[in-house]
Amino acid sequence: MGLESDPFSTQITKDGIIRISRQGRVVVTLGGDRAARLRKALENAADEHARQQLLARATGNYRRGNERHT
After folding, report:
1. With 90 as the cut, is the pLDDT of residue 3 above it?
2. Domain count of the chain?
3. Could you tell me if 38 and 11 are in contact, meaning their C-beta atoms sit under 8 angstroms apart?
4. For position 68, what pLDDT does the model report?
5. CA angle, 40 as apex, 29 and 62 as ends, to 5°?
6. Tell me, what's the pLDDT at 61?
7. Is residue 52 part of a domain?
8. Which of 19, 31, 51, 55 could form a disulfide with 8, with the two C-beta atoms 3.0–4.6 Å apart?
9. Residue 1: helix, strand or coil by DSSP?
10. Is residue 47 part of a domain?
């Protein structure tokens, strides 16, 4: 299941909190400086693929290169 077929979604609240969801469930909630940095990065992202990569990294849900390839 990749990011194209199962993308992350975001909700940014009035007070700057970012909720990142996947499959209808909130995966992580960010606030403060971390949320501000992510929001700026999302605004500057080149395309949707870049946005999805940023969201995956923010949740810790991305390949680190040490997974087995079968």
Report:
1. no
2. 1
3. no
4. 53
5. 55
6. 64
7. yes
8. 55
9. coil
10. yes
43, part of any domain:
yes
Token pair, residue 53, equals 């990569």
| Full domain range(s) for residue 23 | 9-59
Give the pLDDT mean for 2-28: 90
CA 58 to chain centre: 5
Q: Is residue 30 part of a domain?
A: yes
pTM: 0.80
Say if residues 20 and 26 touch (Cβ distance below 8 Å): yes
Neighbours of 17 (CB within 10 A): 13
Contact 21, 11 (CB under 8 A): yes
CA dihedral 14, 5, 46, 64 (to 10 degrees): 90
